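yo, Ig-like domain-containing protein is done. seq:
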Amino acid sequence: MSPPGLTKGAGVLPGPLNAAVGETVMFSTTLTPPEIPFLTVRWRFGEKVILDYDTTSANIPHPEYEGRITLFISTGSLELRNVTSNDSGQYSVIIVTGAGQVEDGNTELGVHGEDISFVVFYLGGDEDTSVRLSCSSYGSSLSFFWLNGSSQLTAGDRVQLSDGGANVTINVTRYDQGTFRCCVFNLVSEATSDPISLSISFGPENINLTISPSLEHYDEGSEIRLTCSSESRPAAQFMWFLNGTMLTATEPELSLVNFQENQSGNYCCQALNDKTLRSIQSQPAAVSVLSASVTSETNLSIEGNSFKLSCDAGGSMISREWKKDGVKLTPDDHLSLQENNRVLTLNSLSRKDTGVYLCNVTNPVSQEEAEYKMVVYYGPENVQIKGPSDIDLKTTLTLTCSAESVPASYTWMLNSTEIHNSAVYTKDNTEPSDGGNYICEVKNVVTGRTSSALHGLSVTGAPGLSVGAISGIVILCLAASSAGAGGGYYIYKKK
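structure:
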């Protein structure tokens, strides 16, 4: 039915239209441009409204036709572009003119030719597996062939064609990587699909670890770059290991900045392909600092004993030189070198062997030094006590004990009683009881030896003392040591 007040006009569309797939179709009405613009225009495909226009809004195409249709409002004509076989069917239009008259019409569109739908099935995307490509199309008496790049595929050991060439199965290698197209034709038409890229996964394989700069050993503070590469599609992911422990680095390049000795060890990388789920690990590569250390093979350097020092260094092509206190050492009756100068042997230590021993390690590109500070333990020998043998009362006594000993501990005894524990013994305000036999005992806790010396001391009366008279003679003091030394009578004659 027409809206109230409107009358239905005659058909305004021409007879059936035909077009080939991909062409542009113009649905031209028989109307001429009016002086007063049309009020509304509605186009349908079957029962589906594909475009609505009225003077209050812009022409609104159906979402499926966005970009494919254009309305020419002066005549109500419609342009449909890039047609497919799905566009075949009945089209109708209803136009309300500016005068309120309704014009309508309908027509048929037939689309001829092949509308290609291209579908790829992957039965496997890895090297040495099968990939199936399938091409489907609408039409009659169709023939198919496939292009890889610009070359036509033909059946062979790795390529099987089926369903008249519509399907192709390839036992792929990495060299089948590229673009494929399906070509369809019959007696009246032909079409080629859009290209599809075929990606073949393989690897990783042929892993390679390189180090730059490539040296036997490195100085501390060096900058070293380790690079891991492998043949893989897609590109491999990487992991790094030091002495079997996984590091946090995941890039193909591992940078060691300000390289230190504690970073030395065997480095290796592992490549992983997350598509093929295969992995491969490189051979380990040694990266180390040229280092040297000197250690003793015996614990105690005691005079008279033999003693060995070992100079250990990492790497190859190593040469060693020994020095003591800056002077190069050469073998003699007292000293010998073994194992290409790695071991230094002192046949019988003497106290003169105390000093700083230096091992200088070199190779063609670098050098390193290590030192060992040695103290030779000896003694005690030649224990001596220095101090007075006679001393006045109420004065200060100082006795000094010395010995040739490293190390040394001192113990003083007076008349067999321990009185002090250092090399120097001091006593203020001496008394008669301070006289007697003093013994200094020297002990070396390393050598386990002990030695001592004896010193006798007499304490005599001091001048200026006031005494009483007894028959013209005064007996001031009588002192005697238990050992019979240092005592005596002190007699003053009265004037």
